[in-house]
Write a structure and sequence with these properties.
Elements (H helix, E strand, L loop, with lengths): L2 E3 L19 H8 L6 E4 L6 H8 L5 E6 L2 H10 L7 E5 L5 H8 L4 E7 L4 H5 L26 H7 L2 H10 L6 H11 L8 H11 L11 H12 L1 H11 L4 E11 L2 H16 L3 E3 L5 E2 L2 H6 L7 E7 L7
Parallel strand pairs: 2-3, 2-5, 3-4, 5-6
Antiparallel strand pairs: 1-4, 6-9, 7-9, 8-9
Helix pairs in contact: 7-8, 7-10, 8-9, 11-12
């Protein structure tokens, strides 16, 4: 069941305030133009930073805040409490956006935002298992309340060929076969249950990575994408969101690696070629040097956006 509500109940345990810094804020506001007002969707609300700025742009604007991470929704609820009933919350994957919107809004949508990155809150929480920088359970699930298969279980149950494919295709790891073989070999002696186990295994298996990049970076990316079926989610989202937009409505997406950006570029370009949409940022935009200095995790972020044209195709 998908929960859509104005006030989301807190998940068990204490939820710390968000430390996540939203990326490309100026570009998001320029792309979405929230000062127009209307009904907006933040399909990956995270810590609520983008949503806060969107809601602040017009006192009559309403927003549906979506996230598959219950902890992220709780943080967003606290961050956005000042906006009261102007905000609704949904605990669901962003691919479910059509049914979520239909449950709370009878018309078309004026703006949709999706930030496909993993948040700082998730990365910095060792218990979530997203990072190789600190030891924790090898989990990586975006939604621990609904997803049954953690990264540890996936690596325990999958074949060497499957693991190799995920590392090669999702992690773009050129030593995918070697790492997959090492993982399967290690299983003979016991399961890989901790992030430090996996990171150490990769470090012993392949040469050191590029300067500034941990040798296990691509392995962790590939496994995380496989655990959460992230590219399937993105493809489903990009297929259905354009139909939700009103005339003049805008869709903005933020990607963080080449696989995500390639999917976004192709999907938005194809929508624009059909004549019903204008490609607002054909080449995409990235963070400037000032933002990267303040928030190094913004260095790989890229935003793209389209606008639905009124009937007749005139902007």
């Amino acid at each position: 069941m998908i929960l859509v509500c104005r006030h989301l109940d807190s998940p068990p345990g204490r939820i710390m305030p968000s430390s996540h810094q939203p990326v490309l804020m100026e570009q998001v506001l320029e792309a979405l133009q929230p000062q127009r007002g209307g009904f907006f969707v933040d399909a990956t609300v995270g810590g609520g930073g983008h949503s806060h700025a969107i809601l602040s742009a017009n006192p009559d604007l309403r927003l549906l805040a979506v996230d598959r991470d219950a902890q992220a929704l709780e943080r967003a609820k606290e961050r956005l409490a000042e906006f009261g009933d102007r905000v609704m919350f949904a605990h669901a994957p962003f691919s479910a956006v059509v049914s979520l919107v239909e449950a709370v809004h009878s018309g078309k949508v004026d703006g949709i935002l999706a930030d496909f990155g993993v948040s700082s809150d998730q990365i910095d929480d060792r218990e979530r298992g997203f990072s190789f920088m600190q030891d924790g359970p090898l989990d990586m699930r975006m939604d621990r309340t609904k997803q049954k298969t953690s990264a540890a279980r996936l690596l325990a149950d999958s074949s060497e060929d499957e693991i190799e494919r995920w590392l090669r295709e999702y992690g773009e790891e050129r030593f995918a076969r070697r790492i997959a073989h090492a993982i399967v070999k290690q299983r003979r002696f016991g399961p890989i249950l901790r992030t430090s186990q996996l990171a150490d295994l990769v470090g012993r298996t392949i040469p050191s990575g590029r300067s500034g990049h941990h040798v296990a970076t691509r392995t962790f990316q590939g496994i995380r994408i496989a655990v959460n079926r992230e590219l399937d989610e993105i493809d489903a989202f990009l297929q259905v969101t354009p139909q939700l937009l009103a005339d003049g409505g805008r869709l903005a997406v933020i990607s963080f690696h080449s696989l995500e950006d390639r999917a976004c570029k192709i999907a938005l370009r194809n929508e624009a070629r059909g004549g019903d949409f204008k490609n607002l940022i054909p080449r995409g935009e990235t963070a400037n040097k000032s933002e990267i200095r303040q928030n190094p995790r913004s260095r790989s972020a890229r935003i793209r956006a389209i606008e639905r044209l009124p009937e007749g195709g005139q902007a």
